Amino acid sequence: MDKLSAMKTFVRVVEAGSFSAVADEMRATQSAISKQVAALEKELGTKLLIRTTRSLSLSEEGERYFEQARRLVGEIAEAESDLRKGEGRLSGWLRVAASVGFGRLKLMPLVKAFMDTHAGVKIDLRLHDGFIDLIEQGIDISVRIGELPDSGLIARRVGTSQRMLLAHRDYLRSLPKGVKAPVNPEDLSNHNCVVYTELATRNLWAFEAGAGASEPLGTVKAVRVGGRIQTNSSEVIRSAVTAGMGIGYSPTWLFESELARGEVVRVMPDWQSPHLPIHMVSPPERKHSAKVKAFVEHVALELTSGK
Known about the structure:
The protein is α/β, with parallel strands linked by helices. It has helices at 3-16, 19-26, 30-44, 60-86, 100-117, 134-137, 169-173, 234-242, 256-261, 290-305; strands at residues 49-51, 56-58, 92-98, 121-127, 141-145, 154-168, 193-196, 204-209, 220-224, 230-231, 247-251, 264-266, 271-272, 275-282.
């Protein structure tokens, strides 16, 4: 038995919460993963996991062993990373997570450039608009947009995102007689608004009065909007707005090409929406990884330079 390999497998099974998830991750069968853990238990002479048909939990001995094994596996990975860094070479898998829209439109070009520079690195890119548990999913580094809750994750700010009210020219041209493009937040009650349900405030959209607004500079207003479509997908938001189905409250990077061509335009420009930080976050045990450090530096540089 390869004890180190078995320890790594055991640690990932506990983090992921299932044998099947780790089997998919390692491109192995569930039986093979289970046998590795069973062999480790036999070697140690104790039961590490309590298995039932519906759940998987650590025994008392397993809890103690897991903490030590995770620390040891992390230290070995760090040592290997430092060795490769000293050789000037990065290699192996890097698991990266991001929202679907940001991942496709902004991150993918940066991933390609990083892989072109580091031929030994392989990227497993996980795109999801909902919350991703980095520990459970075995993610090395994730892009998160918005204020971060207190957590044990290691974070570095790499950029800023801003939401704006955006609409396709076809939507504005097709407004019913007597309905005009919104000028103030209250005007949104007369419009179809495309609601992104993964936004923390859902259909409560916040704005701050700018220099040209009808309210004093800095006045903050939040209005509940409505419309005929809502979605948990940033890609559907993009499709709905570009199809002229309504007004979106979206980050400008989601519509960069359409804005450049003038197909999508900003509405209610005298009211600003909050600026949101963009962070790269990683689990504490990945903070010394040379691959993680290099990727974060690469993304930060590219986003800061506006490429």
